[in-house]
Amino acid sequence: MSQTTQLIKTEIKQNVLLVGLNRPNKRNALNDACIHELDDIFNTLPKDLKCIIIYGEGDHFSAGLDLSELQERDAMEGMLHSRMWHKTMDKIQYSEVPVVVKLHGACVGGGLELASCAHIRVAEKSTFYALPEGTRGIFVGGGASVRLPKLIGIDKMMDMMLTGRVHKAEEGYALGFSQYVVENGEGMAKAMELALRIGENAPMTNRALTQILPRIVDAGQDIGMVMESMTAAIAQSAPEAKKRLKDFLEGRAKKVGE
Fold this sequence. Notes:
The protein is of the alpha/beta class. It has helices at 32-43, 75-93, 110-117, 144-152, 154-163, 169-175, 187-199, 203-218, 221-237, 239-249, and strands at 2-4, 8-13, 16-21, 51-56, 99-103, 106-108, 120-124, 128-130, 167-168, 180-182.
């Protein structure tokens, strides 16, 4: 099953939903219509879905906010616009199933904000990261100031915005922008490999990782520990977990590293 609009392409392969940013002539710059379409997609995920892959058509993942569509807004309108982006990005971060993003070319500004919502990031060697908002007299508004410092540290983000510094794929991997770097043209194959592997996990475990773990990290230690205990108890009481543990104990499951 596949569907293409002017802005987003979707296709399901092996219970993996492929979501393609489809503005290659604009370097997949994100406008409000793109955000609304992404919001609709994550509001109506198909049943039996195991994983999602977000990628960009053409030569780039996303060059960020489509500045040609910036409107004159007062402070309240600007805040509401930012909060609209936040609502959609939250739906990606706290998705019902894990999200893998495949990066290549520009992963800049709003594109980097979108990538930082994903749970696994695979970067091709052509990928480069930047936050040009600082040199353009504006500030990030899609969640980067909250999510990105958790990936790379506040000092690295501050450097990018103050100086316009650009990080390439392999340097970005070392800093924490992505968990994987692959040769150009191999990103989708790696993303699909990971998505299928993720899909083999117990759904309760995947849901705990996408929806509960980030909230544990954001909570204070005492609250986080209680949340962890509750999640562990719920997960291990599930029938599928009991079966998987029994299979391991009785030698029917692979050991780590095999």
